[in-house]
Specification:
The structure holds two protein chains of two kinds. Chain A is α/β, with parallel strands linked by helices. Chain A contains twelve helices and 16 strands. Chain A is about 40% helix and about 25% strand. In chain A, the strands form two sheets. In chain A, strands 8, 9, 10, 11, 12, 13, 14, 15 and 16 form a nine-stranded mixed β-sheet that branches. In chain A, strands 1, 2, 3, 4, 5, 6 and 7 form a seven-stranded mixed β-sheet that branches. In chain A, helix 2 packs across helix 11, helix 3 packs parallel to helix 4 and helix 11 crosses helix 12. The longest helix of chain A has 19 residues. In chain B, helix 1 crosses helix 9 and helix 9 packs across helix 10. Classes of the chains: A alpha/beta, B mainly alpha.
């Protein structure tokens, strides 16, 4: 069953009718035979594409794998928080107290994931983070498990790659908020340790209308490359203005974590984006058979290609399924988190696992270059850093 | 030296864009004394119309621009006749509440129809990239903005100052009762002016998609900028907002270039300083009414 909360009256009536009819036919699942997953996602607002992708991927997974695990029926209750942490908290509270959910999951942005953390601890239920990417999140509750990524993972890897590939001077352009600062700091740390030099450092306001003056500054600093992190959605604007200003012709490359070339938006960015090198966890062009099937099924169902948010949601629901299998349907939160630790599986993005110590994801980080494949723009992977852990945890 | 000129050029283009987006607001606020916070919604409408025509239906960009103007003006005239008209005599608070509600409705409607992700308008190749004039990088698209907006400004000023319609409008604003006594159809003049302001916003929305980005939150994100232009410029003429837009555009670009850490604050600091110095705006008439 996959329905929005608003429809619950209908659901109650439908259940009542089914129950009466069911006396003669198959009895419907009893309450204690179902497992409820409270899914909190931004379905409206600037982050809505994240919510949409995760919702789509979860629906797809449940179509492919059925909605029953270890004798329990999985029921998803979707709530929209618009990426506003106050709303996340209210939604989590209602889901835990009124709906008695066994999991809370989703969380489009870092503040949302953090807002729900104390509630997960109190209620002793797993919080599966499927999007937000700041390192500290999993340290905020022993019940948080993450299936997306951390910015430290991709930012340190692209720094190492840049050092090895003759990029010596870099100018950075990052959005001025927590993930942007994470990306900047981890990049700088590894890049300068490897002998590189950051010649210019610009933080752009989060609601930034025009990149022109910042890009002009980058151009005048004459670096080998620009390291860029901007939130989903702004990547297109950035790349367009980068080309307009002729930075590509001046031989200045773009490098960064893969958010700037998210599969969701990549194809509309125009040819200026060709040659951009990024480090990231997933590309729709990942060559495994499993990914080809995943992309084909996703495209067939929703008409566009999946991005890294979709694959994080797909793996998140998979982890919930596997944990339930391991506990044999036991819904005790502490046991479920224990069952998730150390899980290892093959995902469309490649082999991944959950670090038993940090409950954070361990995954391959791929170096990719934007190329044209069959007339469409894709991130084509050409180097792999295997089993990368999150390097951004607080040093103990 | 060349980077100063490039920045100046970028600033002028940005300022011109702000002017076209905001001058409709200067007209409704200054000439008609109506607080229209939904102004950005008309800009967004124009932007989306242009995007659908160019990207989905294959229209050439320059053919779609006039249509962005016409459609935003048409929406403007319909809303003016059905809704806005009833609020002219109401208090400013009522007008603010009404128009902010309209803004939220437009955001939700566009989000529902077109989705929340940012959209781009496919530009012809001739408008992409930069060329060098004596070492100064000139963006083609920004040059086009300067040309279009410059011509519009001259045209507007001529219409207001030299034509019969312009004098009717000024008369209707200065004293609506006397003007209607002299046989001027005041509601008609206002409706036309309102629609024209909306049309300009629509054109500005279409032009700004490339530079500012176009998404359903456009009316909310840029409302502040429009209001700054009008308050700094004063709303009693077209020249005031025009010079204010240029000043803010150049100041914003220069601030972000030379002191990137302070970048986003420069525009607000300028506004505060100017308003302390001249509370009615640069070209405001001191309490004319």
């Amino acid at each position: 069953m996959f329905e929005r909360k608003q429809l619950s009256h209908k659901a109650v009536w439908a259940a009542a009718v089914a129950a009466i009819a069911g006396l003669a036919a198959v009895a419907p699942a009893k309450a204690e035979d179902s497992v409820k997953v409270g899914l909190i996602l931004p379905m409206t607002g600037g982050q809505a594409s994240t919510g949409k992708q995760i919702e789509n991927a979860i629906k797809l997974y449940m179509q492919q794998n059925g909605d029953t695990v270890a004798g329990k029926k999985i029921e998803i209750i979707l709530r929209d928080d618009g990426a506003v942490p106050d709303k996340t908290k209210t939604a989590a509270q209602e889901l835990i107290v009124n709906d008695k959910v066994n999991f809370i999951a989703g969380f489009g942005v870092t503040p949302a994931a953090l807002a729900a953390a104390p509630l997960a601890t109190q209620a002793k239920i797993p919080e599966v983070v499927m999007a937000a990417g700041t390192s500290i999140i999993t340290e905020r509750s022993p019940y948080i498990v993450r299936t997306s990524f951390t910015l430290a993972q991709s930012s340190t890897i692209i720094a190492d790659w840049a050092v090895k590939n003759g990029i010596k001077k870099v100018a950075t352009l990052t959005s001025d908020y927590a993930p942007g600062n994470d990306a900047l700091n981890f990049f700088k740390q590894n890049f300068t340790a490897g002998g590189g030099e950051v010649v210019e450092e610009v933080k752009t306001p989060l609601a930034n209308p025009d990149f022109a003056p910042f890009l002009q500054r980058m151009k005048d600093a004459k670096p080998d490359a620009i390291f860029v992190f901007v939130p989903a959605g702004q990547g297109g604007n950035f790349m367009k203005q980068y080309a307009e200003r002729g930075l590509d012709k001046a031989g200045i490359k773009v490098i960064g974590p893969g958010d700037v070339t998210d599969d969701d938006l990549l194809n509309n960015m125009g040819d200026a984006v060709l040659g951009t090198v990024t480090a990231h966890l997933y590309s729709a062009a990942h060559p495994s058979q499993m990914n080809k099937d995943f992309v084909a099924a996703y495209k067939k169902a929703y008409g566009n290609r999946p991005g890294f948010m979709a694959v994080s949601g797909y793996d998140g629901i998979h982890l919930i399924y596997e944990a339930l299998k391991k506990t044999n349907g036991d819904t005790d939160g502490t046991k479920l988190v224990e069952a998730m630790k150390g899980q290892k599986w093959e995902s469309p993005r490649g082999p991944i696992s959950i670090d038993p110590e940090t409950r954070d994801i361990v995954q391959n980080i791929y170096i990719r270059k934007v190329e044209k494949v069959d007339g469409e723009l894709y991130n084509v992977e050409f180097a792999t850093f295997e089993a990368v852990k999150d390097l951004g945890k607080t040093k103990k | 030296m060349t980077s100063i000129l490039t920045n100046l050029f970028d600033g002028v283009a940005y300022g011109m864009l702000l002017f076209v987006l905001a001058c409709g607001l200067a007209v409704t606020l200054g000439l008609m004394n109506f607080v229209n916070l939904a102004h950005g919604a008309f800009a967004m409408a124009g932007g989306y119309v242009c995007m659908v025509l160019v990207n989905r239906m294959g229209w050439p960009f320059f053919a779609a621009l006039p249509l962005a103007f016409v459609s935003a003006a048409a929406i403007g005239i319909v809303l003016e006749r059905t809704l806005y008209r009833h609020l002219y005599a109401r208090s400013h608070l009522d007008q603010v509440l009404f128009t902010i509600g309209l803004t939220f409705m437009s955001v939700a409607a566009v989000d529902y129809i077109q989705g929340s992700s940012r959209v781009f308008i496919n530009l012809p190749a001739a408008l992409q990239g930069q060329f060098d004039v004596l070492g100064v990088g000139i963006g083609r698209y920004r040059l086009m903005i300067i040309v279009i907006c410059g011509l519009l400004t001259i045209g507007l000023q001529m219409v207001l100052a030299k034509t019969r319609f312009g004098s009717r409008l000024r008369a209707a604003v200065d004293d609506p009762r006397a003007a209607s006594g002299l046989g001027i159809n005041v509601p008609q003049v206002f409706a036309f002016t309102f629609a024209f302001g909306c049309g300009l916003a629509g054109l500005g929305g279409a032009l700004s998609a490339e530079i500012l980005g176009l998404d359903p939150y456009f009316p909310l994100k840029f409302m502040i900028y429009f209001l700054i232009v009008v308050t700094v410029g004063g709303s009693s003429s077209i020249t005031g907002p025009f010079l204010a837009s240029l000043l803010l555009g150049i100041g914003d670009v220069a601030g972000k270039y030379y002191v990137p850490k302070m970048g986003p604050f420069v525009i607000y600091t300028m506004m505060i300083v100017i308003l302390i110095w001249r509370p009615n705006g640069l070209f405001g008439r001191t309490a004319a009414r």
